[in-house]
Amino acid sequence: MKKILHPASTRGTADYGWLQANYSFSFANYFDPNRMQFGKLRVLNDDYVAPAMGFGKHPHQNMEIITIPQSGALKHKDSMGNEGVIKSGDIQIMSAGSGVEHSEVNASTTKAVKLFQIWILPEEQNVSPRYEQKEIDPLLVTNELTTIVKPKEKATEGDMWINQQAYFSLGNFDTKKDSSYQLNNKNHGTYFFVINGTVSIDNETLNNRDALGIWETEEIEFSAEPNTKLLVIEVPMN
User: Which InterPro entries has this protein been placed in (predicted)?
Assistant: First the structure.
């Protein structure tokens, strides 16, 4: 087993007034040659967007973009004709593929929105762009990890999917729980990101926004403390 620890305090930061961001990997004006990506996981941004502010219309290409609001709501509009609002408890997937333009703006004029924006490098280039969103809170099983995103060919009706051999899982733990994560492929790695609470893995203790990347193993044992929310992202490492 190999691992890399990313304490929350080592992330890149940016404060634009309307946007306060924490970058797990090199992004925008933050560059660290040792923090470019974890396997096919290229971006994990922890964003705070002020009321009525947001990201104006801008292009993307050949990237799988996953947005998970943590509080508040975000208005989405794109060049495919999709328009709507995603809120805390939802997940949004946009496959940029051959090219798409979109905007994301705080839906509230009084409350900030907090969100994770995650980019996964795609398995194929220039696929047809697509958009999907879904309420995921009702799907989560308390004190267990629940897979919320799968590869396209592994998805069944109603499953959220992306164009990569990647899996996203969320866990809400209200009691202390010893558990394990079984990788879907021995050549994958897994990025454990503690949204809040405390998780112990392989003699490492992770707290709010700490992360641990692990690879060259097929199963990972972990212990979650009460009041913990955990995001697990499994990706190919090559």
Answer: Pirin, Pirin_N_dom, Quercetinase_C, RmlC-like_jellyroll, RmlC_Cupin_sf
DSSP character at residue 210: -
Round to whole Å and give the CA distance between 10 and 5: 10
Cβ–Cβ under 8 Å, residues 163 and 95: yes
Please give the CATH number for the structural domain made up of 2-236: 2.60.120.10
Task: Please name the amino acid found at residue 76.
Answer: H
Token readout for 19 is 């946007």
Find, among 196, 195, 189, 214, the residue nearest to 204 by Cα. 214
pLDDT category, 169, cuts 50, 70, 90?
very high
CA angle 146, 149, 152 (to 5 degrees): 140
Instruction: Let me know if 234 is exposed, middle or buried by CB neighbors in 10 A (0-12, 13-18, 19+).
Output: buried
pLDDT digits (tens, 9 = 90+) for 173-197: 999 999 999 999 999 999 999 999 9
